[in-house]
Amino acid sequence: MEQRRIVWITGGGTGIGRALALRLAAHGWTVAVSGRRDAALREVVDAAPPGTVHAFPLDVTDLPANRATVAAIESELGPIDLAVLNAGQFTPFRAKDFSVEPFDTTMRVNFMGVVHGIDAILPAMRGRGRGHIALMASLSGYRGLPLGGPYSATKAALINLAESLRFDFDRMGLRVTVINPGFVKTPLTEQNRFHMPFLIGVEDAARRIERGLESGRFEIAFPLRFVLLLKLFRMLPYRLYFPVMRMFSGR
Ligand SMILES: NC(=O)c1ccc[n+]([C@@H]2O[C@H](COP(=O)([O-])OP(=O)(O)OC[C@H]3O[C@@H](n4cnc5c(N)ncnc54)[C@H](OP(=O)(O)O)[C@@H]3O)[C@@H](O)[C@H]2O)c1
Q: What's the domain count of the chain?
């Protein structure tokens, strides 16, 4: 019988992480889910086929706790084949209420949380000469967007980091993937009071991510029409980008 592969998903208690955990568990993976809220993690464990999902509570901003979590997962479940570093938060932002605090917290969770996850898992993967790390970024990281603020800045940093890691990871025989979703209906986007173009459901997002992870592509970006539009915006010179984006967003 083929051995079940092992995946670690941070932010696995809700939203995209939860949907991906349940999907991978149903498709032969053993899944370790991490997040701060134990109750949310337990709910995912209970919703999955028995013995397929395991809860490892963690605050990703705590570096020693990331290392301890990876050690616990590997000793209890076995070597991690895939790490989906997905934990993230979104704080609405307006420059008129500028303060450092949302930048500090968003950077610590969205960016440093991922860096901590890489730090925790990379030595073991390097030692084995195999492994796959996926960084959860966002299409909002492609360019500075109206209201993007600290959130989009962390996602731009993650895209850049994944691109940079790719060079060394290739040499080490490891895989790195960047995941750039558009708007997905989750607790994170529930608070948005603006129109979210091309909004998709969480199951749909998880299906696209699973397919992308298996495909070997460097970037998993969706939905396609939104991706193409934003890739086009990314190529525009500034003198066109600002007026065009203002027209599209109404800001
Ligand atoms: N929804 C979208 O439209 C969209 C689009 C592009 C990218 N994304 C990205 O997708 C990822 C998942 O977001 P989501 O939409 O599924 O929203 P979500 O349901 O709010 O998921 C975020 C998860 O991150 C966890 N988390 C937050 N801070 C953490 C911390 N310090 N330590 C450990 N876990 C932490 C949360 O669990 P606890 O609170 O229990 O810790 C939660 O389970 C995020 O990185 C988000 O930026 C989302």
A: 1
Which structural domain range is residue 239 located in?
5-249
Which residue among 22, 89, 226 is best mutated to probe the pocket of ligand 1, counting the most ligand atoms within 8 A of its Cβ? 89
Distance 86 CA to ligand 1 centre (A): 6
Residue 98 in tokens:
């500028």
**Coil, helix or strand for 68?**
helix
Among residues 131, 88, 90, 141, the alpha carbon closest in space to that of 112 is found at 88
Tell which residue, 106, 104, 103, has the closest CA to residue 114: 106
Does residue 100 sit in helix, strand or coil? coil
pLDDT tens for each residue of 105-130? 999 999 999 999 999 999 999 999 99
Give CA–CA dist 223/14, Å, rounded: 21
Neighbours of 224 (CB within 10 A): 11
What is d(CA 233, CA 216) in angstroms, rounded to the nearest whole number? Answer: 26
CATH number at residue 214: 3.40.50.720
pTM over 0.85: yes
